[in-house]
Amino acid sequence: MRLFRRKKRSNASVPTIPTNYPYGLCVKTESGHFLMREKIRLRVPTIRVLDSWHFNVVNSSDSAIKHIPLAGKVGFRDGTLIKNIADSRIYLVTQSKRRHVTSPDVFDKYGLRWDDVVTVSEDEANLHIEGEVLN
Questions:
Q1: In this structure, what DSSP letter does residue 93 have?
Q2: What Cα–Cα distance (Å) separates residue 48 from each residue in 10, 34, 104, 114, 134?
Q3: Which of 17, 86, 108, 112 could hold 122 in an S-S bridge, CB 3.0 to 4.6 Å?
Q4: pLDDT band at 99 (very low <50, low <70, confident <90, very high)
Q5: Cross-strand pairs, 134
Q6: Domain ranges (residues) in the chain
Q7: Which residue from 124, 19, 2, 119 is spatially nearest to 74, judged by alpha carbons?
Q8: More confident residue, 12 or 15
């Protein structure tokens, strides 16, 4: 999987007053990354999850978003191949579910690439409920 470098931005324009960021924007604060949704925000729990989305990240502050309720966590982007390091199973994330890839033939069938598999922790894999086996 190709990882993208996010541009560093100056802290000079970081908002500190309550700011209602647009839906779909990812903000970075002192306490982490958050995906903004309609009247809520979702924590982006790890850099691997963040990299799967290819977000344009903007700097903000905890004080600028504390008025927006935290409603959970975001998982990997649909289409991401993940390998759970705890059990070595490979999954394709689709419809926010992890679908176990049971055979190398599945890679050929769907045109998937082994180089795109991201090794993740069990906690990261469990951000998604288990879906139907992919075969």
A1: E
A2: 24, 14, 24, 17, 23
A3: 86
A4: very high
A5: 101
A6: 22-73, 81-130
A7: 124
A8: 15
